[in-house]
Protein 1
Amino acid sequence: MYNSKIKGLGYYVPDNVVTNDDLSKLMDTNDEWIQERTGIKERRHVVRGTDTTTSMGVKAAKIALERAEIDKDDIDFIVFATLSPDYYFPGPGVLVQRELGIKTVGALDVRNQCSGFVYAVSVADQYIKSGMYKNVLVIGSELHSHGLDMTTRGRAVSVIFGDGAGAAVLTREDDTSKGVLSSHLHSEGQHAEELSLIAPGMGKRWVTDILDEKDSEDVSYFPYMNGQFVFKNAVVRFSEVIMEGLQKNELTPGDIDMLIPHQANLRISQFVQKKFGLSDDQVFNNIMSYGNTTAASIPIALTEAWEAGKVKAGDLVVLAAFGSGFTWGSIIIRW
Ligand code: UT7
């Protein structure tokens, strides 16, 4: 029996900074509303023709591989989490395999939105724990900006999301008291449409419907979020799934050295921080700078925390996410 551990981390965000004031030139919004409700000051948007979800993932992965000191030829499997793939199909996993020149290993695409990275790490961990693979490359990457409704109609969603990518190289750890101790995944499809992008799809809104109708009032191809409902569920599920992970390992909130919550809303992170009685040093947030980057938010935040020396050997690190699906999960790591 083995554990997996994160051996290398990397992130990449596009250079183009978009402030709240920049957005207020496109829609009826303002810096005060955005900061007060979400904590966000600015986010990054890809300039058309520069990056894609895959290219950002590749850039983050290269840094993670270098830091892990693992050659691309030693990667046994790729897991790529995103809700904004370059193509309808194939998914970005194979594009990363191509771009990085990795040999013909398996490439899996994970579609779990804000929980994508937690799901992806859990999958990688199971493959490593079972002994099937030794080194797995996990990527979370999103290019939201060009799929958002940048008019006042879409302001409740479009001010929140940003672009970026994060990556982790997971490798086999023989000492089972170290590395990923456990992962905890949940879903509640009853609320699938409360945070969703309906079209294009082969369900309610077919691709051909959109092409035929050219209906400017049709918002089904923009993300929709029932903000308050999602918020209420988020605070409950974040708390539950962190507690579930701690209890599974006979730990208490006081044992947490670093909580990396998915960066959905600073108010959600602060609620969770208060609920568990954690200090500012025990919770890492960077939503102020990047907005909500969905599947990329945890690996970007984890990398920044690690780079700042806030994640050290022996620390108990907790990753937790909640999002569209609804899906949610946590990962408990002894670093
Ligand atoms: O990452 C996946 C999980 N995501 C989350 O967990 C997000 C959860 N939800 C949230 O973070 C919050 O619900 C939001 C930040 C999305 C919205 O904050 P809120 O405090 O729930 O605001 P609201 O939707 O209730 O809207 C309040 C008011 C409305 O105006 P009226 O009806 O009171 O006149 C909105 O029209 O704010 C208005 N509004 C805005 N005003 C300025 C909505 N968006 C904006 C905006 N700028 N961008």
Protein 2
Amino acid sequence: MRRLGIIGGTFDPVHTGHLIAAEEARDVLGLDHMMFIPARIPPHKQAWCISDAKHRLAMLHQAVDANPMFSVNPMELERTGPSFTVDTIRAIRTGYTVEDILFIMGHDSFHEIETWFQYQQLISLCRLVVVSRPGTPPVQPEHFSESIRRLFPHQVISLDSSSKRMDNVMTSPWRICFLIIAGLKVSASEIRFRVRTGRSIRYVVPDGVRQYIIDNHLYSEDSGGIEGNAYSAHK
Ligand code: ATP
């Protein structure tokens, strides 16, 4: 495989915003495959009740299994100890023959990148594709911290997914790409809120995921969850 895309997250639940972002990045950058890697949440971070890993994994399978270009990799869930993205990318590099790895994230995640464990190494091991996320402010070059400017000078590009597919882009040595997509203003927290308050989640999650949520009584008042700020697991 030449170019592998990876999207990590809590996926509680996976939603159409994730799927569109992954597909847009795969399509515009000509990636061969996109892997969804759900994060392991350490027990002490579960105060606000993130769903059990088995449910998050099952919903991901419901969402992506029909697409041969997409797959789910449970490696972080199976690992003990902290779940650092940089370790995941190293493990993928060891376990797969792949020329280029691209890690896909939303603007909101990129705003926090410098809090991620060994983020400089991460950006050296894989390229970052930062997709626009409606409702979160875009990252402007002037927002780049000094360290990113210093470490990756001239290695940041911007693309618009409405332009035609650009295979030649991949041959240039960029490390961070800002990709404007026709995204969806949807979040997992909003979906959980909708379920709890009896609102519709049709079309904001794939049908199989919606049915799974219903069948397993996820996110309802009596499922024991209390809403709070989402823990960002990819650090
Ligand atoms: P929560 O609302 O619980 O914080 P979330 O919707 O942000 O969840 P995550 O699983 O935390 O979902 O997100 C995984 C990755 O997908 C992150 O990099 C995030 O920025 C990105 N992402 C999530 N939703 C969207 C969206 N609607 N458009 C683009 N990127 C998204």
Protein 3
Amino acid sequence: MTHAIYPGSFDPITNGHMSILESGLVSFDRITVAVLNNEKKQPLFSVEERIEITRSAIETRGLDTSRIEIDSFDGLLVNYCQRKNATVILRGLRAVADFEYELQMANMNRHLNTDIVTTFIMANDAYFYVSSNLCKEVCRLGGDVSKLVPPPVDARLLAKLKPGK
Ligand code: PNS
């Protein structure tokens, strides 16, 4: 049984994240979507909201929920992986811009724990330009992100950010 941890801020989860998760399910038996609990990052959605929105997005997409856990974590990611008995960290890569940051994190995590391996999956090219931050900005300014995020996420973004709210 290969158990991968898919960590992130997921503030909120996008179609890019969903495509990584779907591809990850081809390679790994179990995936834990681990939502970073760090209020210092001043997220738009609380960690409880991010978990609930992520769960709803996964159910709406019809993914195999028996193989997916949604959890939150704080502190060092490698310590969380160890607590969960997971040996793989799953991360998505979009453009080259992601590469340097991801390489740095993967090497730091390897330095901290050599038993845990970071694996990258390329995001679906339809979502190469999609990020949670850009979706929030576009929605805040009245733009349509309904094709870039799962339906429950679009509804939650509109409820929080639609101009005039
Ligand atoms: O979605 P994000 O914001 O790119 O995810 C970043 C995340 C959560 C993977 C990263 O910030 C993280 O692992 N934080 C936990 C703290 C940690 O372990 N830091 C040292 C490793 S670089």
